Amino acid sequence: MGILGTMATDCEIRIDYDKLRKDRLHKMQNQIRKDGLGSLLAFDHDAIRYITSTKLNDWMNNKLARACLVSADQPPILYEAGSAIAAKKALCPWIADRIFPFTGGAMRGSFPKQVVFDHARNFAKEIKSILTEWGVADAPLGMDITELPFILALQAEGLNVVDGQQTILEAQKIKTKEEIDLIEMSIAIDEAAFWDVITTARPGIRENDLNGLLRKRIYELGGEEIQNINVITGNRSYPHPHDASDRMLRMGDMIFIDIVSVFNGYHTCYYQSFVVGKPSQKQLDIYKQAYDWLFSAAEMLKPGVSTADIARKWPEAHSLGLKSEAEAFALELGHGIGITHWAKPVISRWFSLEHPEILEEGMVFALETYNGEGNDAARIEEMFVVEKDGYRQLSKFPSERLISCPNVGSVLP
What we know:
By secondary structure, the protein is α+β, with helices and mostly antiparallel strands. The protein has helices at 17-34, 45-52, 84-91, 113-134, 148-156, 165-172, 177-198, 207-220, 281-298, 307-311, 325-328; strands at residues 39-42, 67-70, 77-80, 99-101, 141-143, 161-163, 225-233, 254-263, 266-267, 270-276, 333-336, 343-347, 364-373, 376-387, 390-393, 403-405.
């Protein structure tokens, strides 16, 4: 349980990556069988990594130029991009004999128009041939995302293309010990970056300066990807803009920061709030309300509780001065997290009251709340794993009270 080191070693089993690979594939194949699919064809990079334990760097994330095919009874095939095939064959022995060129891609349609449709048709024929060999060509083919010409080509081959996204998310919903340990390691890296904020934030520092500082620390400590860092301060904080700017900090500014980073495939979503100098009573009140909303929900986390029960702990949209729960979405919120930034289940007053889902042991959540008024606002987010008799908080940065910057002593008893 917890963190034993960022590196795999010859002398200790810290994260058992071989077990992780096998467990993830086993869970996905069980879910394919449970959902009555014949096979699953995934294009999303997180799904490909979950199924095949392979990745390609961030530049490929939105190109739809990699895929994997798997069934309940057949090991996955990886369709890889160009020269990366040779590298994967050398470095990924668990799948080396099942890596082939991805011949269906068109880099989001940027190839000549005729090539786009030719590639789609040829790849669809290849998929049909494999599914026929596996004996599942007449069963539903689940898919997550792809280019429209390829879906049309699969349908032209007589394949029954259905939504496979729900299958993927259901398989990922309950985390293994190895997954939880990786999430906690990812969190620990973020916490080191947050510490740098409280020793650095002062008048004259810009939001983007803090953004760069956080990114530098995360990469130094082994983070492999940063999907987002929001740094929001002072009069930019209400309403919540969900971004960062070149705004310069001034005395008395509140700061809230969100980090979405990745360590060995596993994500964080982690907000903390600070103030430059001594907080006012108004700022303390704003912060305390956000904290109370968050932990009134966190105290509900245990197996058998519904997402509706948790959502009821949060204020209605109209009490926040908003017209609808859709408009208030992402302010008071819970979402699963793991190899994807957002995973099942999601908790919101927008839909959880009418469509509740039941919490289970092994789910990992990020719970986040927001409160603001005038030029001040606070955002807090913590991460938890649901255990047999309740929950364990994975995030450890001290959020019991608003932290003053740059006073390191303010976080100590």
